[in-house]
Amino acid sequence: MTFPPSESRPGRLALLNVSVAIIAVILTAFAAWALRHVLTPLILAVFLMLTIGGLERALRRRTPLPKPAILPTAMIGVLTLFGLAIWLIADNGAHIVAESGGYAARLDVLIKMGADRLGVSAAPTIDQLFRQTKPEHYIAGVAGAVGDIAEKAVLVLIYLGFLLASRAGFGRKLTELFEEGRHAEALTVLARIQNGVEGYIWLQTVVGVLVAAGSALIIWGMGLSHVMFWSFLIFLGNYIPVIGVAIAVMIPTVFGLIELDALWKPAVIFVAMEIIHFVAAHVVLPRMQGDRLNMDPLVVLLSLAFWGVIFGVAGAFLSTPLTVMVMAVCAEFPATRGIAVLLSSDGRPFASPPEP
Which residues contact 316 (CB under 8 A, 6 or more apart)? Predict the structure, then answer.
């Protein structure tokens, strides 16, 4: 019986370890997809908790608030911002629905203009097109989606409350869970995840404010209504990498066609906001992202598709933070360090220690 040379065994063992790691990643992804309805609210709650923690540390460093008041202030601040966001969407959505009659009349005019250009003699009205789509078929689906969002929002708040309540004992659990040598490594991984997620939040918030502010000036200058609402949608879309803002700027453009008299104004809105988005996405964002997240731009795009398939819209919003977490964990194990290297921008995932 012939045995392979001893020199080839380490190479084969390394290949086996990598294969096992890849299979583990695939199985983990499948399990996350199967449990997405349970995990999505929990992941959103963890994201909110990290946001509150980042604001808490910023308040501790930069404000004279007494220590007992810092965490409640951070919680109230973050939850107030989310509440205002929900109110802004609901209030402006109600106004848009109330103005839908005027929008329908303007759409009829646009359809007639397009039919005349194409030589169509009998142009359908928006009411006729709406009836042909049989909207009653979609009412149940829309109602189910709204109910699902409300249910997930309640679960997120419940999970967030329990996560915040269990923070005090988390350090003791880590001490008991890991051996003395591994305990420091676990804390290092958690610190890297925390810094990466907080860096992403700060990055997207700064860039989103810049893009939304520029878009607000353009929308206001062209005379389109609901400036704050459209600007907020563009700001929110900035948290979806690559395509979020590109899609968000289309919405006020379409409403500009309906609301504004001159057709050149929606064109100016679209072109100007796309220029702002291009500068932010291809000049500002890559420089800031390379310095803070050390993630390859292609990985950002692939992670958007991957996490979007698993967790839906929530996965699209959290695709980059989730990938940062995966990269931090993979970098700590020899079998999966190659995955972390591929995910990183310069091939050195977390080469430097995290900032305190």
Answer: 240, 244, 304, 307, 308
